[in-house]
Amino acid sequence: xxxxxxxxxxxxxxxxxxxxxxxxxxxxxxxxxxxxxxxxxxxxxxxxxxxxxxxxxxxxxxxxxxxxxxxxxxxxxxxxxxxxxxxxxxxxxxxxxxxxxxxxxxxxxxxxxxxxxxxxxxxxxxxxxxxxxxxxxxxxxxxxxxxxxxxxxxxxxxxxxxxxxxxxxxxxxxxxxxxxxxxxxxxxxxxxxxxxxxxxxxxxxxxxxxxxxxxxxxxxxxxxxxxxxxxxxxxxxxxxxxxxxxxxxxxxxxxxxxxxxxxxxxxxxxxxxxxxxxxxxxxxxxxxxxxxxxxxxxxxxxxxxxxxxxxxxxxxxxxxxxxxxxxxxxxxxxxxxxxxxxxxxxx
Length: 347
Ligand SMILES: NC(=O)C1=CN([C@@H]2O[C@H](COP(=O)(O)OP(=O)(O)OC[C@H]3O[C@@H](n4cnc5c(N)ncnc54)[C@H](OP(=O)(O)O)[C@@H]3O)[C@@H](O)[C@H]2O)C=CC1
Ligand SMILES: CC(=O)N[C@@H](CCC(=O)OP(=O)(O)O)C(=O)O
Known about the structure:
The chain is an alpha/beta fold and about 350 residues long. It has helices spanning about 15-20, 45, 65, 80-85, 105-110, 150-165, 185-190, 195, 215-220, 255-270, 315-330, and strands spanning about 5-10, 30-35, 60, 70-75, 95, 130, 135, 145, 175-180, 200-205, 230-235, 245-250, 275, 295-300, 305-315.
């Protein structure tokens, strides 16, 4: 079987990671590679680490260029993906790595992103708990998939077992994230001067303003939280990749350390890409670099009466490109793990 894949945004961080991750899939063959200002350049000029693709020429992102493929991956700024996706044929599988189609609520879109809401597509997180079972059962046959936000993936995977099992109170969640520079995209990351960024940790989008807040709350509600609330603070730290989400919530009445641990272990026992670490060992972003891995740990802070859950991912793999490939496999009826690995890169 050959799956012809077009990648829009091939000059960016996510586009580059889509090219790297998807090239490990035995059935994938790349068709058009498109972008915007870099059209006419070679991939090698923008992604020098992708040596086998170095001589491929980047085309402008047009409906014509993206037509005639089995799969189109959009790795474009939000807004740009909605504009092009609306013109793509209905029978091509479109995986949008941007935010345009993630939210179910047009009001939430207007509040956090502004402008018109493009719509809502099936959500590309196979592990998500939904009222109708796990999200993976809803993806086969889908022709449109909204790939989750990277911070959202880390926070959701950290906490959803406790929500689904009823052992935490999700109306008072506090999340603090250490996030790497590549999450900001190539253009912004280039502006983060090493002289100022190195050696410093800087919070941003503080006070409930981050665009991922409504997406996280949507996932918590999907997992069964009746009135989810979160105080969310991302902190930019000097690493190129990685997200470490530390998430806490009150212990539900009647729950204890045993029921909490059992909830997390049971939730992820059969998940190919989520690993609950042995007790006492805590996730590190370095162990996820380059892999479609989510490492999770949980404990009870008895004095505070709160559950503390931590999740580490590579923002560009499980946080985006890996999640896209995982969802593509499920949508096409292929083994979910095809072409994906939990073997990271270290040291
Ligand atoms: N970085 C991350 O960790 C994550 C990012 N995402 C999302 O993925 C998407 C891509 O992000 P990222 O790769 O980081 O961003 P980059 O800035 O690194 O790359 C953006 C890409 O989009 C292209 N582009 C910009 N404007 C247009 C346009 N008007 N029409 C067509 N192409 C355009 C650029 O092309 P050119 O260079 O030629 O101008 C470039 O290829 C965003 O929606 C982002 O929010 C999601 C999860 C994680
Ligand atoms: C460091 C940094 O800025 N990280 C970005 C990552 C978000 C991202 O890219 O996700 P979307 O697809 O939802 O835009 C942020 O926190 O906004």
